[in-house]
Specification:
CATH superfamily: YgfB uncharacterised protein family PF03695
Number of strands: 0
Largest sheet: none
CATH topology: Four Helix Bundle (Hemerythrin (Met), subunit A)
Number of domains: 1
Structural class: mainly alpha
CATH architecture: Up-down Bundle
Strand content: under 5%
Radius of gyration: 16 Å
Distance between the termini: 29 Å
Length: 178
């Protein structure tokens, strides 16, 4: 698994200063969804991440640099030997906060796919639709309604990770050869 060069809270703070309201987890989920569709393109990453929000121009250069670095590190880890990417989730915080970050990450991933034109429709294989359906169930989860222990949280993270790898492979296999 990868150790990112920027910390979760550090990115959260930079994003907030630039006017971005989504969590670091949601940003990373969107980023990975876009990678699955665009197969590594770094063009307009920040603009695509912030498509729903208005950024304060003065603070967006720092955010752009941080996002580009995280995007590149994520792409290299996902495309490298051993599938070493990690979901960008907080290492610290309450179980509720960490579970909410996983929910945000799953929502972001689905949004990133949608930004790239993948909506889970019939143009996907049955395996891909099932994986996206499972991720969507996690994206709808409300951590405040159910107590989740550490083992359940780790299993959910692993489940999402496997589903994302599957979706990426299935989307890559249907892409035209370059």
């Amino acid at each position: 698994m990868i150790n990112y060069s920027i910390g979760y809270q550090q990115l959260q703070d930079i994003a907030a200063q630039a006017g971005l309201q989504q969590s670091s987890a949601e940003m990373h989920g969107r980023m990975l969804g876009m990678i699955c569709v665009d197969h590594g393109s770094t063009r307009d990453v920040l603009e695509k991440l912030a498509c729903d929000e208005t950024l304060r121009v003065g603070d967006s250069a720092i955010l752009h640099d941080a996002v580009e670095r995280l995007y590149q590190e994520t792409w290299e880890a996902l495309d490298g030997i051993g599938l070493g990417f990690s979901m960008f989730l907080p290492d610290e915080g309450s179980r509720f906060e960490r579970c909410q970050a996983l929910v945000d990450w799953a929502r972001g991933f689905l949004r990133g796919l949608a930004i790239g034109g993948v909506d889970g429709g019939h143009d996907l294989s049955i395996k891909a639709r099932h994986a996206l359906s499972d991720i969507a169930r996690i994206a709808e989860f409300d951590p405040s309604e159910v107590g989740v222990d550490e083992e359940d949280f780790e299993e959910a993270c692993e489940f999402v990770w496997v589903a994302v790898v599957l979706v990426r492979e299935l989307l890559a296999s249907r892409a035209p050869d370059s």
